Amino acid sequence: GTTITISSNHWMMAWTGLEINTLAIIPLISKSHHPRAIEAATKYFLTQAAASTLLLFSSMTNAWFTGQWDITQLTHPASCLLLTTAISIKLGLTPFHFWFPEVLQGSSLTTGLLLATLMKFPPTALFILTSSSLNPTLLTTMAIASAALGGWMGLNQTQIRKVLAFSSISHLGWMTIVILYNPKLTLLTFYLYCLMTSAIFLTLNTTKIMNLATMMTAWTKIPPLTATLMLTLLSLAGLPPLTGFLPKWLIIQELTKQEMTPVATTIALLSLLGLFFYLRLAYCATITLPPNSSNHMKQWQTNKSVRIPT
């Protein structure tokens, strides 16, 4: 499905690829037969089907007025607006983000990894192919809103999959803000984001971490892996010496070149919100307790009622 979408130059083929992708991931989400997983699969299917329909409607409107089915020849203003909205729903950009944290929370960690990385690739590729036709005002507004909401909503989460979902929304904001001016930079950001997110998801899957409480005792299982996890989390936050800082630096540089200094300043300040919850996760991964009150039982505390035989 991904290959069909990224290699097509006709809207019908792109739509077909997206639909194959959606139908392929649904059995993976609902594999566990848990009510939460079935709910996640239903939400995912309805959202993606609506977005695909909107995308098809946008390309048909363009073909009706211009006679063109070519992806790069999308010129009708209403079609451009509809396409921007359709791909934003598929990616989970604000204000169409509501489905993504819920779906990720209902999936297993391996399926969550696919949802956060591979499933985002075809819509991102379509964004890059049609970057000249997109609505700039709408895209910039949604990008800043995504960066703000991704940081703000991630602050209050204890479930790590939800934290990573909001982290994904925040990173999508960074990707889409620069797509009109430098699509190659968007692709670089996406690749590095996929690399770092894959590392985090695979580490969580190995150590069976699902929330902050279990993360605090994970260092007892595989200490080197949790140290690496801390570095990956800080890299995803975009701290200077680490890999994740590179795309943010280049994006701010590009926005400044385009004389969009206020936008660059705003999005840089909003990334500090995300930094706070990444630091909290890094704390929990290595120093066991962030500076807050904690009243839950530690995993290593033994049951006092058990008699030890003499």
Automatic annotation (TrEMBL):
Per the record, membrane topology reads:
Multi-pass membrane protein
- The protein in question is named NADH-ubiquinone oxidoreductase chain 2
Into which EC class is this enzyme placed? Answer: translocase
Known role: Core subunit of the mitochondrial membrane respiratory chain NADH dehydrogenase (Complex I) which catalyzes electron transfer from NADH through the respiratory chain, using ubiquinone as an electron acceptor. Essential for the catalytic activity and assembly of complex I.
Q: Which keywords fit this entry according to its UniProt record?
A: Electron transport, Membrane, Mitochondrion, Mitochondrion inner membrane, NAD, Respiratory chain, Translocase, Transmembrane, Transmembrane helix, Transport, Ubiquinone
On the tree of life, the source organism's domain of life is Eukaryota
The UniProt record lists the NADH:quinone oxidoreductase/Mrp antiporter transmembrane domain at 8-271
Q: Does the keyword Transmembrane helix apply?
A: yes
A single GO CC term for this protein reads: mitochondrial inner membrane
> Which InterPro entries does the UniProt entry name for this protein?
Complex_I_Subunit_2, NADH_DH_su2_C, NADH_UbQ_OxRdtase_chain2, ND/Mrp_TM
Gene of origin?
A: ND2
Positions of the NADH dehydrogenase subunit 2 C-terminal domain: 275-305
Task: Give the principal location in a single coarse category.
Answer: mitochondrion
Give the protein family.
Belongs to the complex I subunit 2 family.
According to its UniProt record, the EC number is 7.1.1.2
